[in-house]
Amino acid sequence: MRKYGKYGVTGAIVLSIWSGDAGAQAQAPAGLGPMEFGMTLKQLVESIEKVEQLISRCMREQGFEYFAADYETVHAGMKSDKHVPGLTEEEFINKYGFGVATMYTGLPPQLESGHSPAKVGLGERNVQVFKSLPARDQAAYNRALLGDGLSFAMALETENLSQTGGCTRKAVEQVFQPQQLKSDYYNPQNALINTDPRMKAALRKYAAEMKKAGFDYTHPDEVEPDVRARLAALTSNGTMPIEKMSPEQRAGLAKLQDYERRVAAKDYKLQEELFTPVEQQIQRELFARKVK
Question: How many CA atoms lie within 13 A of 217 on its CB side?
Protein backbone atom coordinates (compact mmCIF):
# COMPACT_ATOMS: atom_id res chain seq x y z
CA MET A 1 0.00 0.00 0.00
CA ARG A 2 0.99 3.62 -0.38
CA LYS A 3 3.30 5.14 2.23
CA TYR A 4 2.31 8.28 4.06
CA GLY A 5 4.01 11.28 5.62
CA LYS A 6 7.54 11.34 7.02
CA TYR A 7 7.62 7.73 8.09
CA GLY A 8 4.91 6.17 5.93
CA VAL A 9 2.02 4.05 7.15
CA THR A 10 4.45 1.37 8.28
CA GLY A 11 6.65 3.86 10.09
CA ALA A 12 3.65 5.31 11.87
CA ILE A 13 2.72 1.83 13.06
CA VAL A 14 6.26 1.25 14.29
CA LEU A 15 6.12 4.44 16.31
CA SER A 16 2.73 3.58 17.78
CA ILE A 17 3.97 0.12 18.81
CA TRP A 18 7.02 1.63 20.47
CA SER A 19 4.61 3.88 22.33
CA GLY A 20 2.55 0.93 23.49
CA ASP A 21 -0.45 1.83 21.32
CA ALA A 22 -1.14 -1.58 19.80
CA GLY A 23 -3.56 -4.39 20.40
CA ALA A 24 -2.39 -7.98 20.47
CA GLN A 25 -4.22 -9.99 17.82
CA ALA A 26 -2.61 -12.07 15.05
CA GLN A 27 1.16 -11.89 15.07
CA ALA A 28 3.53 -11.64 12.11
CA PRO A 29 5.71 -14.71 11.50
CA ALA A 30 9.10 -14.76 13.21
CA GLY A 31 11.64 -12.79 11.21
CA LEU A 32 9.11 -10.62 9.38
CA GLY A 33 9.51 -6.90 9.95
CA PRO A 34 7.27 -3.94 9.10
CA MET A 35 9.68 -2.07 6.81
CA GLU A 36 10.47 -2.38 3.09
CA PHE A 37 10.94 -5.97 1.86
CA GLY A 38 9.59 -7.28 5.16
CA MET A 39 12.70 -6.16 7.05
CA THR A 40 13.00 -4.81 10.56
CA LEU A 41 14.32 -1.27 10.90
CA LYS A 42 17.70 -2.66 12.01
CA GLN A 43 17.86 -4.95 8.98
CA LEU A 44 16.95 -2.10 6.64
CA VAL A 45 19.69 0.16 8.03
CA GLU A 46 22.29 -2.61 7.80
CA SER A 47 21.24 -3.57 4.26
CA ILE A 48 21.47 0.01 3.03
CA GLU A 49 24.93 0.45 4.52
CA LYS A 50 26.19 -2.83 3.01
CA VAL A 51 24.82 -2.02 -0.45
CA GLU A 52 26.32 1.45 -0.44
CA GLN A 53 29.77 0.12 0.51
CA LEU A 54 29.56 -2.42 -2.31
CA ILE A 55 28.50 0.24 -4.81
CA SER A 56 31.49 2.36 -3.79
CA ARG A 57 33.88 -0.58 -4.25
CA CYS A 58 32.39 -1.48 -7.64
CA MET A 59 32.63 2.11 -8.88
CA ARG A 60 36.28 2.35 -7.80
CA GLU A 61 37.02 -0.82 -9.74
CA GLN A 62 35.60 0.89 -12.82
CA GLY A 63 37.68 4.01 -12.31
CA PHE A 64 35.07 6.29 -10.71
CA GLU A 65 34.75 7.94 -7.34
CA TYR A 66 31.61 7.20 -5.34
CA PHE A 67 31.06 7.96 -1.68
CA ALA A 68 28.98 5.33 0.11
CA ALA A 69 25.82 7.13 1.24
CA ASP A 70 24.71 6.56 4.83
CA TYR A 71 21.25 5.41 5.89
CA GLU A 72 20.00 8.95 6.53
CA THR A 73 20.93 10.06 3.01
CA VAL A 74 19.30 7.09 1.26
CA HIS A 75 16.26 7.31 3.51
CA ALA A 76 15.95 11.03 2.75
CA GLY A 77 15.69 10.13 -0.94
CA MET A 78 13.05 7.53 -0.16
CA LYS A 79 11.03 9.97 1.97
CA SER A 80 11.18 12.73 -0.63
CA ASP A 81 9.20 10.60 -3.09
CA LYS A 82 5.88 12.43 -3.61
CA HIS A 83 6.87 15.21 -1.22
CA VAL A 84 8.10 18.71 -2.03
CA PRO A 85 8.46 21.64 0.36
CA GLY A 86 5.28 23.69 0.67
CA LEU A 87 2.91 20.99 -0.60
CA THR A 88 0.96 18.40 1.33
CA GLU A 89 0.94 14.90 -0.12
CA GLU A 90 -2.59 15.43 -1.42
CA GLU A 91 -1.57 18.70 -3.09
CA PHE A 92 1.44 16.96 -4.62
CA ILE A 93 -0.75 14.15 -5.99
CA ASN A 94 -3.23 16.59 -7.51
CA LYS A 95 -0.46 18.62 -9.16
CA TYR A 96 2.06 15.94 -10.13
CA GLY A 97 0.31 12.60 -9.80
CA PHE A 98 3.01 10.14 -8.75
CA GLY A 99 5.74 12.45 -10.03
CA VAL A 100 6.67 9.93 -12.74
CA ALA A 101 5.70 11.21 -16.20
CA THR A 102 4.77 14.65 -14.86
CA MET A 103 8.34 15.29 -13.69
CA TYR A 104 10.13 13.48 -16.50
CA THR A 105 13.02 15.35 -18.16
CA GLY A 106 15.23 12.54 -19.46
CA LEU A 107 18.21 14.14 -17.69
CA PRO A 108 20.52 12.25 -15.33
CA PRO A 109 19.22 12.63 -11.75
CA GLN A 110 22.36 14.54 -10.72
CA LEU A 111 21.51 17.29 -13.22
CA GLU A 112 17.88 17.67 -12.24
CA SER A 113 17.18 21.23 -11.09
CA GLY A 114 13.72 20.48 -9.72
CA HIS A 115 12.33 17.82 -7.41
CA SER A 116 14.46 14.66 -7.63
CA PRO A 117 14.27 11.95 -4.94
CA ALA A 118 16.97 10.00 -6.80
CA LYS A 119 19.33 13.00 -6.56
CA VAL A 120 18.63 13.36 -2.84
CA GLY A 121 19.31 9.66 -2.25
CA LEU A 122 22.67 9.78 -4.01
CA GLY A 123 23.98 12.39 -1.61
CA GLU A 124 25.46 15.80 -2.28
CA ARG A 125 29.08 14.59 -2.48
CA ASN A 126 28.24 12.14 -5.26
CA VAL A 127 26.25 14.78 -7.11
CA GLN A 128 29.26 17.09 -7.03
CA VAL A 129 31.56 14.29 -8.23
CA PHE A 130 29.24 13.72 -11.19
CA LYS A 131 28.98 17.42 -12.04
CA SER A 132 32.78 17.78 -12.07
CA LEU A 133 33.11 15.22 -14.88
CA PRO A 134 33.13 16.03 -18.62
CA ALA A 135 29.86 15.17 -20.36
CA ARG A 136 31.25 12.01 -21.99
CA ASP A 137 32.49 10.79 -18.62
CA GLN A 138 29.16 11.63 -16.97
CA ALA A 139 27.40 9.23 -19.31
CA ALA A 140 29.97 6.51 -18.57
CA TYR A 141 29.70 7.20 -14.82
CA ASN A 142 25.95 6.65 -14.79
CA ARG A 143 26.20 3.57 -16.98
CA ALA A 144 28.58 2.17 -14.38
CA LEU A 145 26.44 3.26 -11.43
CA LEU A 146 22.88 2.74 -12.66
CA GLY A 147 22.95 0.99 -16.02
CA ASP A 148 19.48 1.77 -17.39
CA GLY A 149 17.89 1.35 -13.97
CA LEU A 150 16.69 3.23 -10.93
CA SER A 151 18.84 4.63 -8.15
CA PHE A 152 19.12 2.49 -5.03
CA ALA A 153 16.91 4.86 -2.99
CA MET A 154 14.12 4.77 -5.56
CA ALA A 155 14.35 1.00 -6.03
CA LEU A 156 13.98 0.59 -2.27
CA GLU A 157 11.08 3.03 -2.07
CA THR A 158 9.18 1.29 -4.85
CA GLU A 159 10.29 -2.15 -3.57
CA ASN A 160 11.39 -3.11 -7.08
CA LEU A 161 15.05 -4.07 -7.14
CA SER A 162 14.55 -5.68 -10.56
CA GLN A 163 14.77 -2.16 -12.03
CA THR A 164 18.36 -1.62 -10.86
CA GLY A 165 21.43 -1.87 -13.08
CA GLY A 166 25.18 -1.31 -13.13
CA CYS A 167 27.07 -1.33 -9.84
CA THR A 168 23.80 -0.80 -7.99
CA ARG A 169 22.50 -4.10 -9.33
CA LYS A 170 25.75 -5.91 -8.53
CA ALA A 171 25.59 -4.59 -4.96
CA VAL A 172 21.96 -5.50 -4.24
CA GLU A 173 22.57 -8.99 -5.61
CA GLN A 174 25.10 -9.53 -2.81
CA VAL A 175 22.84 -8.25 -0.02
CA PHE A 176 19.24 -9.12 -0.89
CA GLN A 177 17.73 -12.55 -1.44
CA PRO A 178 17.25 -13.81 -5.03
CA GLN A 179 13.46 -13.68 -4.81
CA GLN A 180 13.64 -10.04 -3.67
CA LEU A 181 15.39 -9.15 -6.94
CA LYS A 182 12.53 -10.36 -9.13
CA SER A 183 9.99 -8.02 -10.71
CA ASP A 184 7.11 -10.04 -9.25
CA TYR A 185 8.45 -9.94 -5.68
CA TYR A 186 5.78 -8.99 -3.19
CA ASN A 187 6.48 -7.85 0.36
CA PRO A 188 5.28 -10.68 2.64
CA GLN A 189 3.84 -8.08 5.00
CA ASN A 190 1.57 -6.79 2.23
CA ALA A 191 0.66 -10.34 1.27
CA LEU A 192 -0.49 -11.00 4.84
CA ILE A 193 -2.49 -7.77 4.91
CA ASN A 194 -4.16 -8.57 1.59
CA THR A 195 -5.42 -11.94 2.87
CA ASP A 196 -7.25 -10.33 5.79
CA PRO A 197 -11.05 -10.35 5.17
CA ARG A 198 -11.24 -6.65 6.03
CA MET A 199 -8.70 -5.79 3.35
CA LYS A 200 -10.29 -8.13 0.82
CA ALA A 201 -13.57 -6.24 1.23
CA ALA A 202 -11.81 -2.89 0.81
CA LEU A 203 -10.03 -4.14 -2.32
CA ARG A 204 -13.30 -5.27 -3.91
CA LYS A 205 -14.77 -1.82 -3.37
CA TYR A 206 -11.58 -0.19 -4.67
CA ALA A 207 -11.71 -2.18 -7.91
CA ALA A 208 -15.38 -1.31 -8.41
CA GLU A 209 -14.83 2.40 -7.80
CA MET A 210 -11.79 2.55 -10.08
CA LYS A 211 -13.77 0.84 -12.83
CA LYS A 212 -16.56 3.41 -12.45
CA ALA A 213 -13.94 6.13 -12.95
CA GLY A 214 -12.67 4.44 -16.12
CA PHE A 215 -9.53 2.81 -14.70
CA ASP A 216 -8.84 -0.92 -14.92
CA TYR A 217 -7.00 -1.61 -11.66
CA THR A 218 -7.90 -4.04 -8.89
CA HIS A 219 -5.20 -3.04 -6.39
CA PRO A 220 -3.35 0.21 -5.58
CA ASP A 221 -0.01 -1.55 -6.09
CA GLU A 222 -0.79 -1.83 -9.81
CA VAL A 223 -1.24 1.86 -10.57
CA GLU A 224 2.16 3.58 -10.30
CA PRO A 225 4.09 0.65 -11.84
CA ASP A 226 1.74 0.82 -14.83
CA VAL A 227 2.47 4.54 -15.28
CA ARG A 228 6.22 3.82 -15.03
CA ALA A 229 5.92 1.06 -17.65
CA ARG A 230 4.04 3.35 -20.03
CA LEU A 231 6.67 6.07 -19.57
CA ALA A 232 9.52 3.61 -20.18
CA ALA A 233 7.91 2.47 -23.43
CA LEU A 234 7.50 6.08 -24.56
CA THR A 235 10.99 7.28 -23.65
CA SER A 236 13.30 4.35 -24.55
CA ASN A 237 13.39 3.28 -20.91
CA GLY A 238 13.90 6.82 -19.65
CA THR A 239 16.94 7.64 -21.78
CA MET A 240 15.34 10.15 -24.17
CA PRO A 241 15.57 13.84 -23.15
CA ILE A 242 12.40 15.82 -23.82
CA GLU A 243 14.19 18.17 -26.22
CA LYS A 244 15.01 15.21 -28.48
CA MET A 245 11.45 13.90 -28.63
CA SER A 246 9.41 14.09 -31.81
CA PRO A 247 6.14 16.08 -31.76
CA GLU A 248 4.25 12.77 -31.59
CA GLN A 249 6.28 11.61 -28.62
CA ARG A 250 5.76 14.91 -26.81
CA ALA A 251 2.04 14.63 -27.41
CA GLY A 252 2.14 11.10 -26.03
CA LEU A 253 4.00 12.32 -22.95
CA ALA A 254 1.46 15.10 -22.36
CA LYS A 255 -1.36 12.57 -22.65
CA LEU A 256 0.35 10.25 -20.17
CA GLN A 257 0.93 13.13 -17.75
CA ASP A 258 -2.77 13.98 -17.81
CA TYR A 259 -3.65 10.33 -17.26
CA GLU A 260 -1.20 10.10 -14.36
CA ARG A 261 -2.72 13.09 -12.57
CA ARG A 262 -6.26 11.75 -12.94
CA VAL A 263 -5.53 8.17 -11.91
CA ALA A 264 -3.27 9.21 -9.02
CA ALA A 265 -5.90 11.57 -7.62
CA LYS A 266 -8.57 8.87 -7.73
CA ASP A 267 -6.21 6.27 -6.25
CA TYR A 268 -5.25 8.64 -3.41
CA LYS A 269 -8.88 9.42 -2.57
CA LEU A 270 -9.87 5.77 -2.45
CA GLN A 271 -6.83 4.78 -0.39
CA GLU A 272 -7.64 7.46 2.15
CA GLU A 273 -11.28 6.37 2.33
CA LEU A 274 -10.94 2.60 2.11
CA PHE A 275 -7.50 1.43 3.18
CA THR A 276 -5.79 3.65 5.73
CA PRO A 277 -7.80 2.72 8.86
CA VAL A 278 -7.96 -0.97 7.90
CA GLU A 279 -4.26 -1.26 7.06
CA GLN A 280 -3.16 0.51 10.21
CA GLN A 281 -5.27 -1.77 12.40
CA ILE A 282 -4.01 -4.94 10.70
CA GLN A 283 -0.39 -3.79 11.01
CA ARG A 284 -0.85 -3.07 14.70
CA GLU A 285 -2.15 -6.59 15.17
CA LEU A 286 0.63 -8.16 13.10
CA PHE A 287 3.56 -6.35 14.66
CA ALA A 288 2.44 -5.70 18.23
CA ARG A 289 5.40 -6.32 20.61
CA LYS A 290 7.54 -7.63 17.71
CA VAL A 291 9.43 -4.46 16.70
CA LYS A 292 13.10 -4.43 17.74
Answer: 19
Contact 220, 271 (CB under 8 A): yes
pLDDT for 46 equals 97
pLDDT digits (tens, 9 = 90+) for 221-273: 899 989 999 999 999 888 788 989 999 999 999 999 999 999 999 999 999 99
Span between the terminal Cα atoms of the chain, in Å: 22
Q: Measured between alpha carbons, how far is 211 from 161 in angstroms, rounded to an integer?
A: 30
Q: What is the pTM of this model?
A: 0.78
For the chain, the maximum distance between any two Cα atoms, rounded to a whole number of angstroms, is 58
- Residue 224, SS3? helix
Separate counts of helices (H) and strands (E) for the chain = 14, 0
**What sign does the CA torsion over 27, 30, 34, 37 have?**
negative
Helices (H), ranges, 19-70: 41-61
- d(Cα 38, Cα 44) in Å, to the nearest integer? 9
Q: Determine the pLDDT at residue 122.
A: 97
DSSP character for 100?
Answer: S
C-alpha distances (whole Å) from 157 to each of 82, 160, 222, 247 are 11, 8, 15, 33
As a dihedral over the C-alpha atoms of residue 264, residue 267, residue 271, residue 274, rounded to 10 degrees, the angle is: 160
